[in-house]
Amino acid sequence: MSKLKKLRFRGAETADAIIHLQARHLKEISGDYCRKITDATLSVIVARHEALESLQLGPDFCESISSDAIKAVAFCCPKLKKLRLSGIRDVSGDAINSLAKHCPELSDIGFLDYLMVDEVALGNVESVRFLSVSGTSNMKWGVVSHLWTRLPKLVGLDVSRTDIGPAAVSRLLSSSLTMKVICALNCSALEEDTTFSGDRYRGKLLLAQFTDIFKGIASLFADSTKKLKNVFVDWMDVKQKDNSLLMQSSQEDVQERAATGLANFVVIDDENASIDCGRAEAVMQDGGIRLLLDLAKSWREGLQSETAKAIANLSVNANVAKAVAEEGGIEILAGLARSMNRLVAEEATGGLWNLSVGEEHKGAIAEAGGVKVLVDLIFKWSSGGDGVLERAAGALANLAADDKCSMEVALAGGVHALVMLARNCKFEGVQEQAARALANLAAHGDSNTNNAAVGQEAGALEALVQLTRSAHEGVRQEAAGALWNLSFDDRNREAIAASGGVEALVALAQSCSNASPGLQERAAGALWGLSVSEVNSIAIGREGGVAPLIALARSDAEDVHETAAGALWNLAFTPGNALRIVEEGGVPALVNLCSTSVSKMARFMAALALAYMFDGRMDEFALVGTTSEGISKSMSLEGARRLALKHIEAFVLTFSDQHAFAVAAASSAPAALAQVTERARIQEAGHLRC
């Protein structure tokens, strides 16, 4: 180990092992997947390697590292020249000033995707030549443009994916005597200013979405004897002969870095899994998919992991996903997912997750044994493998949406595996995908027995009820969706109620007035499903479920109209609930749905709810109390009755044309419409009876 100069590692477990490494002459350390590395681990590593010149950790966020570890780096590594760290919450002025004081040769600094950086302190690092704050938020660009222009050696600055504006870029380019290049890709504030141009700063280069990037890069290498376009001539000639020189390099380190570059190259927004379709298809058209799949067969786990990640990211694009499947990528990814290396398994499973989005790939994944692989992964990595578990559950959720594949999932033990995740896993991403998978499994009640099977799995319903109380909206939404689907089964419906489902779902409906339409739809839908039972319907009314359903009926979303109206229709069967709907202001809300909703189904069910409410059974409830209270309620009910009747008749009259009426009844809800006419015992309802 005494001659070791460069070291690359992956994961916090490997970093812990490096603590015991005796390599006094080690100059470069590079680490990936460092999310769990702590201050203590990093401090011990740098303390034992004082000759260190380069330290790079990322691109995953180093969430457990703080300014204390950066100060330790400064004190222990006086020869440090390059420091690049990703995703630290913030770096203090003290830590940066320590680097400036103790690391006089520090010329390359990368503080990527930080929440906060001390801009003033960075202005004190006079040795820096290349500085990146890409993806870092909360930057004070006025301070930056004033102080950083004084840095005597600063040549290149990367501010990509930040909110820097044209004023700061202009000042940096015009005032700095040494600045040569500013990279400002994906900076929305800069790109929105169509009047700004970087061309007027002679001898300086701005790389942005609106500039000619290749021409700009060429200018960095071109001399006075060559035209700019000739800089890439040799490279283009090689490219025509050999499609991906880097990825076909005999050096697997180079191949691995190239795969990493491709994986990151196509991503626009990592958090929302957004990619640049043009870039993804360019990789595909240039033969990149075949090359990546060949590299994925390497014995080196690092290369397997990076190529699987690249394939996964590229497969977000439907055209690339098709090419991956046609080139045998599903079988390769399924094989890699079986790896004993967690990072390889995680990236390969991510690839299967993205491919499973396409309907045409679901059957192929099942045929390749992918369903069993995914289920086995849940048991294999049930402890300490949240990334694998989220991807496996997500892929199973997509597959379960297909009727045939849902049976494969159940046969492979998927119900038990997913319920285990819903019950035991504390990671919200896993909870959300497990609940979504159970919801999709339960959605085929007419064609298979999975709905009943999920309900009969020990602890399933209790776990889903508990997940509706999660702090994470996505978890609440998917859990409510699963309970909605499960409530179509009679035994499940009663078991959900016995597990506290009524109270939980009413509480959810009460809390989601400002939530996403998806959560609102599922909360109301689950109550709709439970309220099919008269006992549950009465319980929902007593728990206070009427008021939130009326509020949801006023939503702007068509899907929410349908589920809220359906739930109120079921509740209106019982006179007590009917009276509650009137007292909570539900008549105007239902009248509005009946008259204006874009959804014909919502209009039907709103009319049904109104018809049931005023069929005469509610009157006796209204008379309970003192004589004066009874008279007051009676008068209030009469006004509500007239309003309801008027709009029910208007609704039915919209179908008075015989042909239109027949078409609507056949396509929407003939039995429901018949019930409107049969159940409305209102003396004046001539048109309704017709």
From TrEMBL:
Segments crossing the lipid bilayer: none
Protein name (database record): Protein ARABIDILLO 1
Gene3D superfamilies referenced in this protein's UniProt entry, alphabetically: Leucine-rich Repeat Variant, Ribonuclease Inhibitor
InterPro entries: ARM-like (IPR011989), ARM-type_fold (IPR016024), Armadillo (IPR000225), LRR_dom_sf (IPR032675)
ARM repeats: 328-370, 369-414, 413-444, 459-501, 500-545, 544-586
Pfam family, one: Arm
Domain of life: Eukaryota
Species of origin: Linum tenue
SMART domains attached to this UniProt entry: ARM
Keywords, alphabetical: Repeat
